[in-house]
């Protein structure tokens, strides 16, 4: 909403009670008071106002929530023009709810507050507005008036200090301690409205996360002695409500709005207990609002930080920047490896070690300022940064591991295809169990002790479901069966590898005329269907090998080359053997006689015996 261009928005029932410059509009307060009386909410002089306010970070949908819940007409950031959309809501906007929309039993006033980021808008600084102190002043004003405060936050921003607007919550806690005495016993209903909840996390898990965040914020707040030993629950009654996405799950969103409206209705509403009422009479609303705002303005001007506090803030910020730089560098490497498809098996332990080291270094560097809240704030920011980036990396790594598991499962299924082109159900179950164990072992390394809420249980169930679905479709897939058949044919058509080196013993019986030797040596080599034979034989009778002069053997060497056209063809081998004599004669060589041209020259006769 634009804060300095008029008292009302496009609808006359929405009015700007406090401007973006921090000015209370007394005439608007009077109009709101008259509207409450005119709409039948004040039947007696002592009727009290019921006030519900919405706070949160810029763009968190506060105005949308109020419009849907109370049928109001607060302007939205997307409809306020470029300037307003960039800066968010300024000041405090108010609207009187029509009778019958929500039956709370009292006149109902709703407030839409300035966000933390809106206070730092350039337009406010340029115009000399009080934007730097406006958010805390608006929060203090709301605490003095509201029965119920809706803190609007997106589910993805929970736990993130800046994105969730936790600075505004911390201001709320601090201002409550300052405004209300401990023995006053006054409380306010604080309702966390978690937007865009996709049912991925249970409401109980979100409730614990919110309670832990509130406890951490409460510990970092400077408190008076009366509040030192108390918890934040003495100030606020914490409630959590979840709403799905307004556009993609509009039906469930409307149902959630109706359920929240029912919780606000009736005299015994759990969100509108008598102890939450600030007891502001309807006829005194304008005066009460103006006096409270002026008192808060005077106190804010006087509350300047001390020199010691400034030194603490500077030193804590310097150490924070140093540790934050280390975290960015380390997470940057992890992000880069993840984008390359690398699985980080020990990510959980690495993150635990990194967080412990950074926390220790930050604590050592800021030990002199342990009593200042700024130290705890920066420590929380470091932890939140680690948590947010680890959650992102954790989810990316789980997705990568899921894809690797499915790919591994496909390969193992293909290897187990039987002759009929299918995988037996028992084999499928065995493979699925093996993949589940493999996935669990690797995913366990991603879990960090510092963030126990991040588990792989859901991802494990998703993997098992996908594997079973794929296994069912696998046997019916023509493409897979064709690939399997091709693989089987390729395996069957591979040639039998021949041994390149072999040793054999052959016993031959040969009858030859006397005077010709019976001793011969045969060696052959086979490659690609070609055989080379080397034959050495003695041409002298074995009885004449030994004489008075010693060993007098005379040998011939023959070479032969054969081409075997069909492996295992006995007829072809027999035909080859029948021509052996002629081929030996053509390729024989004699040391004494030189080349031999006829069979008779080889054996000394016309025909072998």
Automatic annotation (TrEMBL):
GO terms for cellular component: endoplasmic reticulum
Highest taxon listed in the record's lineage: Eukaryota
Keyword check for Nucleus: no
Gene Ontology terms for molecular function: GTP binding; GTPase activity
PROSITE patterns: G_GB1_RHD3 (PS51715)
Ranges of residues in domain GB1/RHD3-type G: 46-285
UniProt keywords, alphabetically: Endoplasmic reticulum, GTP-binding, Hydrolase, Membrane, Nucleotide-binding
GO biological process, one term: endoplasmic reticulum membrane fusion
Gene3D superfamilies per record: P-loop containing nucleotide triphosphate hydrolases
KW Thylakoid (keyword) present: no
PANTHER family noted in UniProt: PROTEIN SEY1 (PTHR45923)
Family, as annotated: Belongs to the TRAFAC class dynamin-like GTPase superfamily. GB1/RHD3 GTPase family.
Protein name per the record: Protein ROOT HAIR DEFECTIVE 3-like 1
Organism: Porphyridium purpureum (Red alga)
